[in-house]
Amino acid sequence: MKLTLLVQLSWRNLWRHRRRTVILLTTICFAVGSVLVFNALLRGMQVSMAETAIDNLNGHFKVLAPGYLDDPGIEKSFEFEPIGRPELAGDAIQGWAPRVRVPAVIRSERETRGVQFVGVVPGSEEISFLGDVAIDGEYLSGPDDRRILVGQALAQQLETGVGRRVVLITQGVDGGNRESGYRIAGVYDAVGEGIEKAFVFTGLATVQELLSVDAVTEVSVRLAEDDQNPSVLNSLTSTFSDLDVRTWQDLEPQAAMMYEMADTTVAIWFLIVMGALIFGIVNTLVTAVMERVRELGMLRAIGMRRGAVIAQVVIESMLTMTIGISIGVVLGTLSYLWLADGIDLSAFAEGLEMTGVKPELVPRLWARDVFLVVGLSLVLGILASIYPAQRAVKVQPLDAMRG
After folding, report:
1. To the nearest 10°, the Cα dihedral for 52, 53, 57, 58?
2. How far apart are CA 14 and CA 285, in angstroms?
3. Cβ neighbours, 10 Å, residue 64
4. Rounded to an integer, what distance in angstroms lies between the CA atom of residue 91 and that of residue 225?
5. CB neighbour class for 402 (10 Å; exposed up to 12, middle 13-18, buried from 19)
6. Of 103, 129, 98, the residue nearest 116 (C-alpha)
7. Where are the alpha helices (DSSP H) in 240-366?
8. For the whole model, what pTM was predicted?
């Protein structure tokens, strides 16, 4: 039997019971559309967590002295010359940010707090959160700037503000305390209070002068695109063979774990929704087959082969899935576009800070997710038609005609 004839028969059978078909199509549309929207929201959270971890002075990669993570201090420092950076094809590296980061104590007229004292090159910090934060006051003018930037939450704890003086105490290479007074140039407003309480910034040369060193404790490397990670990592590892090169996943294991969990969550949600949908498709096809017992028996009696019967049921299932998936993809895409400007989650900012998600969630609809949902839905549609097709070929012509 020709394929065109089988398609015509399947199409006709599909619309014998319009209400049932419309209900099934509506279910498929909702399932596919909801999966796409849920995927877009999860991908948005996934990207937000990664960006937060990368912005948090990590970069995609960080070059450190061996043992620095176990015992952070100025004695774990190394010399770094930006001129000697590896030449990577296609301008893979967006920027480098050398820093000196040491534990310190900051003391105002009223309060004392433990912080991370970070010397930076202000122009290089476009690759970190410092490049985007709002600042009350002034930004650092350069690596020789002797003023400091403090977080808004820390300034409130210290009961201080722009223009006021504070004292910072840290430890030098010789193990002795180093103490110096600084004027607050600006107060920065970061995404989370944890960052605001943790970091105090000043010029790189200022910290080096305080600690009597001409070296750095870390160099963050940010990439232009994430898909260049393997080649860049190999290049950095070979160039800085005597140092440790860590990825942001190594430096932020909790964020990395949650990032990986997003892929698993997407798969689980798809299986739950589409798994429930399969039962509806199987039930509908079985009902349609049992309603056409006499018709199938007659077709078998006039010479329709078993393979043609199976093909008819499978084509009917595929037509239903194709129409439902197409409309579902359109509705899911329109819903994504409606949310594409971002969702304000500032009411949950305190809880989101723990997961690394920014207060404004921007959904991400990736083409690979759309193709994956479409492809797997069609495969499940074929699998759902196997049992009804087996029921159809078991119909004996004589029994059907007699019934």
Report:
1. -150
2. 10
3. 23
4. 10
5. exposed
6. 103
7. 248-251, 253-291, 293-301, 306-339, 349-355
8. 0.76
Ramachandran sector of residue 172 (left: φ over 0; alpha: ψ -120 to 50; beta: rest): beta
Q: Are 76 and 107 in contact (CB under 8 A)?
A: no
- For residue 378, give the H/E element and its range: helix 367-393
Specify burial of residue 155 (Cβ count, 10 A radius: 0-12, 13-18, 19+).
buried
How far is Cα 257 from Cα 250, in angstroms, rounded to an integer? 10
Amino acid identity at 172: G
- Which residues, at least 6 apart from 402, have a Cβ–Cβ distance to it below 8 Å? none
Rounded to whole angstroms, the maximal C-alpha distance in the chain is 102
pLDDT per residue over 220-277, tens digit each? 998 887 665 677 888 888 888 889 999 988 888 887 888 788 778 877 887 888 777 7
pLDDT by residue (tens digit) across 260-272? 887 788 778 878 8
Q: Give every CB contact of residue 52 below 8 A, 6+ residues apart in sequence.
A: 191, 255, 356, 357, 358
